[in-house]
Amino acid sequence: MPAKDITASMLVIGDEILSGRTRDKNIGVLADFCGELGIDLKEVRIIGDELSEIVAALNALREKYRYVFTSGGIGPTHDDITADAVAAAFGVELEISEAAKQAMMDRFPGYEMTPARLRMARIPQGGDLIENSVSAAPGIHIGNVYVMAGVPSVFEAMLAAIAPTLETGKRVLSTSIDCFVGEGRLGDPLGALQAEFPDVKIGSYPQFGGGRRFLTQVVLRSADQSRLNAATDAVQALVERLHTEHQAEIANHPKT
Amino acid sequence: MPAKDITASMLVIGDEILSGRTRDKNIGVLADFCGELGIDLKEVRIIGDELSEIVAALNALREKYRYVFTSGGIGPTHDDITADAVAAAFGVELEISEAAKQAMMDRFPGYEMTPARLRMARIPQGGDLIENSVSAAPGIHIGNVYVMAGVPSVFEAMLAAIAPTLETGKRVLSTSIDCFVGEGRLGDPLGALQAEFPDVKIGSYPQFGGGRRFLTQVVLRSADQSRLNAATDAVQALVERLHTEHQAEIANHPKT
Hints:
Number of strands of chain A: 11
Number of domains of chain A: 2
CATH topology of the largest domain in chain A: Molybdenum Cofactor Biosythetic Enzyme, Chain A
CATH architecture of the largest domain in chain A: 3-Layer(aba) Sandwich
CATH class of the largest domain in chain A: Alpha Beta
Order of helices and strands of chain A: EHHEHEHEHHEEEEHEHEEH
Oligomer: homodimer
Strand content of chain A: 15-25%
CATH superfamily of the largest domain in chain A: MoaB/Mog-like domain
Shape of chain A: elongated
């Protein structure tokens, strides 16, 4: 597989995900977003609202990957400490952004700029704002880090705002084939095909439950259309052979 | 808050989560599981099917936390490499477990032990089996690491199997209060209450969308019932005061 060179990671910040109170919805959205843009999402981390942990994770991820996308911890309350962590990770001060204040006041005329609300206008030195079309309080872009909200509608709006600014890679194409014999039978010949097509990533995903029938979904992924087609044809032929064998076995051993 | 000393982390292994093909369901299930047992889930990582990445993450997490729970990558196909990674992380060899083979053959009489299926009986030296009541192929327990399946029904069955063997902590109690004014107004006095109750963790979660009304959910968490009650009473009084002020403002500025 030709190396995709635009890598990314995600840092989900919030006690509520780890405590089980809230089910995360943003990881899957970011995974789809990256796929559309040909960005290779390599790692996601979820951590709680602890400053030192956020700083350590930010520094590990921004060093390792082209992009770091964060969600959570940018609201007005005491437990919203992501801006503080980003400033600490980059070794810069937080400043009140007049543009951020203005964006909030434009949206909500008569808005009283309480100290809590002012927290949402704090931007690390050298950072830019990410537009928030939902609720005005902006996200933050600094270096290769994009700091976005945890509320799903706002997170999505912020992704839409940054999409045109991101470097994109070659989009990975994929095909999918359903196989009605189990992985235990499919595994060996499928492994041989993977060895034959090292440039196409072949994944195998069993599904249990529902009816009695086995279902294994084989997913092939590559940025190269012709190689993807060749591997897909090979897997398709294998699956048809296994289905035929399986039918013959059933015919030879009818239930009595 | 009295320090809870039973910490845990989760490692989700699988390209399909990062590519967006599959939405993870196991993180929320593990979060609830840990909450029930008083285990403090501190971090989750999601990484792809790459041996060196899995080894590095396993070693980082098993050093830092009391428990590491993994999901994914223990099936019979070539992309199932979690057992290999665990063996490499612990510096031991993989061995075919006769007990694992037997468990699979007992479940599926006449089962042909193909090389693919045999992959699922490979256990790192020094490891124990985790029972799989759904589909027989076992998980692995070695050191402080619990290696489980990615298929949600099997993951849950394996959690049920290990639950009685885990060290448990003091269960964290929580209360929740709905506040119908925004975080911008709630933030400052709520921050003051957090300072007053440093032993109770106070989180604030805004919800957008739906009606025009603001809704902020305040969640309080502590292992100490009496402190939790005192902090909850204080937040309740604050929220009632804000509601009253809000009503008065509406009365004084009726819509024309």
